[in-house]
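Batch manifest, entry 17 of 40.
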Amino acid sequence: MKRIKFIVFLFCSLIALQVQAEKISLVVNTWPPYVDSALDDDGLAMKIVKTALKRAGHTPEVRVEKWEKVLEGSEIGVYDLIGAVWKTEARQKMLLYSHSYLTNNIVLVTQASNKMEFSSQKDLQGLLVGVLKGYEYDDKFMKNTSILKFQANRLTQNLISVQQGKLDAAVADKRMALYELKHFMGNNMMDFRFLAKPLSSRKLYVAAPIANASSKKLIAAFNKGLAAIKKDGTYQKILDSYEF
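Output type: structure tokens
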């Protein structure tokens, strides 16, 4: 009888350890509508990431930090995964990337009455364009000194400046701009116009610290889960459930 109890205890202990091992730390920075605890399922990106990880057998424990701390912590392997990150040459030296799970279209937003058009960066020469601090926009755009750039902490600041005629245009992720206009400037949405051609498009990824031995397995697990939810239609249902 004691032997049976011991075997049951050992079995339960192994199960508990397995469950504990499946929990992973997922660090993110608030970035509505992609990442925000105030939104359903913590935002569009988090809904996709958490669903894919759970399909692969992992339970993510989400931690929200400032972007600088996200990168610093990931560089030394404090966190298992970053939930939403763009790929850059510098970051590839410290991070392993998943398959991309969303595309961010970076667009120009201007006054509805503004007749400007955009086909190349030459069209922006001499214009004052609002950008956000810390964002990795198109490298050629950021290095183009003929385009005057005003940096703000929040997109709403730049949108208000566009509305008031203080900026010629604001650079923004399209979903983010639509979200900000709808929730903070809903009565003034008709004052704005999105230029048809994107300034650039950026792929969104999950990434893991190269410093962590488990990173390759976690990235492979996420890729497997992502493929599974795309195959059975779950991924498309998530996209369709978010309106901007």
